[in-house]
Amino acid sequence: RDAVASAPRSPISRDRAVPSAGGAEADAASPPPARVAVPQAGASRPAAANKREIVIEQRVATAVDEAYQAFTSGRMEEAARKYREALALNPADVHAILGLASLAVRRGDAELAARLYEQTLALDGQNPEALAGLAALRASADPVGWESRLALALERNPRSAGLWTALGSVQARLRRWGEAAQSFAQAAVLEPRSPD
């Protein structure tokens, strides 16, 4: 199955999905883990710092939501600008990094996309979207190794349609059509409206 960078599922929620970009073989459209934890009341930081962090987090969320809207409306330059705006506020924002990776895949810049997926994995080593995206870009070099890596990731994230799609693509590359069909079917059950 060929996949293209597709739009995220939900623009507003705190754990919103980002544009997925499985490159030529996988979709990575599962919601990423929650973002930066906001300090609890009574934490050792001064109250002003807490308010400032909350304001920054809100600005980051707004920028990512606006990027999502631009992405789904086909305004890719605006989406890129908004994702970069979010990263200027929080360089470790996984949503914004994954959004830029999706845009890089759409532009055909596989190396940039791979670096962004790797950056995401450096911040969140369990991120299913980054793993599925990276698998789509790199699995041809070592399909057996990627199959094992994706199977392990699916043990931790069995509801990740992106991981199931990536696994199906690797299995198809290995000409294991029945297994690939089952993996793609599982992805379709989890995300019935996904174009992949």
Mean pLDDT level: 81
Count the DSSP helices.
Answer: 8
Please indicate the percent range of residues in DSSP E strands (runs of 2 or more): under 5%
The helical percent reads 55-70%
Gyration radius, rounded: 17 Å
Distance between the ends: 7 Å
Number of strands: 0
Description:
With 196 residues, this protein is mostly helical. The chain is built from eight helices and no strands. The protein has helices spanning 47-72, 76-89, 94-107, 110-123, 128-138, 143-156, 161-173, 177-190. The protein is elongated, with a radius of gyration of 17 Å.
Short structural description:
With 196 residues, the protein is mainly alpha-helical. 61% of the residues lie in helices and 0% in strands. Helix 1 (47-72) packs parallel to helix 3 (94-107) and helix 6 (143-156) packs antiparallel against helix 7 (161-173).
Please tag this protein with its features:
elongated; 196 residues; mainly alpha; 8 helices
Question: Which helices and strands, and how do they pair?
Answer:
Blueprint: H1 47-72, H2 76-89, H3 94-107, H4 110-123, H5 128-138, H6 143-156, H7 161-173, H8 177-190
Helix pairs in contact: 1-2, 1-3, 2-3, 3-4, 4-5, 5-6, 5-7, 6-7, 7-8
